[in-house]
Amino acid sequence: MSDRRGRRLAERCHVKRLSWAIALAAAAGPGMVVLAADGPVDDQLVIDGREMITRTMAPAGHPLPEVLSGWLFREAETRATEADSFANPGMLAVERGEELWNTVDGSAGKSCTSCHGNAADSMKTVGANYPKWDAAAAKPVNVELQINKCRVAQMGAEAYGFDAPDQLALTAYVKHQALGTPMHLDLAAGDMQSWWDKGKAVYYTRMGQLNLACASCHEASTGKYIRADHLSQGQVNGFPTYRFNTGGMVSLHNRFRGCIRDTRAEMPKAFSDELLALEVYVTWRGTGLSVETPAVRQ
């Protein structure tokens, strides 16, 4: 068995134990302790000389008083890796994304640079403000879908497949341009508010054989330990994220689908309306946190 396959198998086994532990905790009566509580660290994240906002007051209507970056819940070694751009393995994807940004592709003979020029200028807020309302599509689009829209309509190139290495790399590069920028969605645009409502419903809906919702871990159990895993608020300000347990970049919809799979429910398709709505809502839950892409997690 290869080391990579072995790590994946170990992760699957760990996730199953984790899911059952959460389910037991939810059903536990008085005197039955499954979870041990512990708060996040009180450290400051600085990347390339920029101070990241890792904790801030929650927006009006938020169920929690304060929003906290997942970075605060990680081990010291993981936190240090993200803080050092030379050590962060996710920066390899960002470098590949820069190559793609400048590469001519498709029948129109264009690259991203042809329309958008210097990404540091034209993309400096994109990672903080997506998903955005797309009037033509009559739905929100995230960065991945916007990239594909540009590739097909402007470049005459093929759309990237879900989680294709180049899709992960270019998305990471685009979002990285907003490093340090506080996240904020325009819920007044188009019909974004109704998609927020749909996403909220998904977030609190229990599903699968384990009867768990997103909120079961990331709201009701935030700050608690189950075995070796420290549960965060599940903020999405660092995606695509480099994860040590997979040895590679992980997209947001990959993570959504993985969590749903672990409840033993049927996984929705990536970029489905259900998951796009969830992305709108969960992104809003992190309002005010800095973009950390590419974050590093365990």
How would you sum up this structure in a few lines?
By secondary structure, this protein is an alpha+beta fold. It contains 12 helices and 12 strands. 42% of the residues lie in helices and 10% in strands.
Q: What would you give as the CATH superfamily of the largest domain?
A: Cytochrome c-like domain
Shape descriptor reads: globular
Widest sheet: strand order?
Answer: 1-8-9
Q: Could you give the count of β-strands? A: 12
Q: Please provide the ordered H/E string of secondary-structure elements.
A: HEEEEEHHHHHEEHHHHEEEEHHE
Q: Which fold name is given in CATH as the topology of the largest domain? A: Cytochrome Bc1 Complex, Chain D, domain 2
Outline the fold blueprint.
Layout (H helix, E strand, L loop, with lengths): L2 H25 L8 E2 L8 E2 L2 E2 L3 E3 L8 E3 L7 H8 L7 H11 L10 H5 L2 H4 L3 H4 L2 E3 L4 E3 L1 H13 L9 H12 L15 H13 L9 H5 L5 E3 L2 E2 L10 E3 L4 E3 L1 H11 L10 H13 L10 E2 L1
Parallel strand pairs: 10-12
Antiparallel strand pairs: 1-8, 2-3, 4-5, 6-7, 8-9, 10-11
Core attributes:
3-stranded mixed β-sheet, alpha+beta, 298 residues, Cytochrome Bc1 Complex, Chain D, domain 2, single chain, 2 domains, 10% strand, globular, 12 strands
Written account of the structure:
The protein has 298 residues and is of the alpha+beta class. It folds into two domains: 3-86 and 181-297, Cytochrome c-like domain (Cytochrome Bc1 Complex, Chain D, domain 2), CATH 1.10.760.10; 91-176, Cytochrome c-like domain (Cytochrome Bc1 Complex, Chain D, domain 2, Orthogonal Bundle). Helices cover 42% and strands 10% of the residues. It has twelve helices and twelve strands. The protein has helices at 3-27, 76-83, 91-101, 112-116, 119-122, 126-129, 143-155, 165-176, 192-204, 214-218, 252-262, 273-285; strands at 36-37, 46-47, 50-51, 55-57, 66-68, 132-134, 139-141, 224-226, 229-230, 241-243, 248-250, 296-297. A hairpin with a 2-residue loop joins strand 8 (224-226) and strand 9. The longest helix is centred in the first third of the chain and has 25 residues, at 3-27. It is globular and about 55 Å long. It starts with a helix and ends with a strand.
